[in-house]
Amino acid sequence: MSSSVSEATGAASSKPESPQKPADSADQRSTGLLGNQGPSLSYSQLLQEIEKGEVKDLVLSPARREVQARLRDGGSVAVAVFNNDQLLLRTAEKARVPLSVRDDRSEAMLAGLVANGLLVLLLFAALAVLIRRSAQVANKAMGFGRSQPRIQPEGAPAVRFEDVAGIAEAKEELQEVVTFLKEPERFTTVGARIPKGVLLVGPPGTGKTLLARAIAGEAGVPFFSMAASEFVELFVGVGASRVRDLFRKAKAKAPCIIFIDEIDAVGRQRGAGIGGGNDEREQTLNQLLTEMDGFEPNSGVILLAATNRADVLDAALMRPGRFDRRIHVDLPDRRGREEILSVHARTRPLADTVNLSDWASRTPGFSGADLANLLNEAAILTARREQSQINDQALSDALERITMGLTAAPLQDSAKKRLIAYHEVGHALLTTLEPHADKLDKVTLLPRAGGIGGFARTMPDEEILDSGLISKAYLRARLVVALGGRAAELVVYGPSEVTQGAAGDLEMVTRICREMVTRYGFSSLGPVALEGDHGEVFLGRDWLRQEPHYSRETGNRIDAQVRQLAQNALDQAVRLLRPRRELMDELVERLIVEETIEGDAFRQLVEHFEGSRQPQAVAAGVGAGASA
Ligand code: ADP
Question: Cα(430)–Cα(451) distance, rounded to whole angstroms?
Answer without folding.
Answer: 23
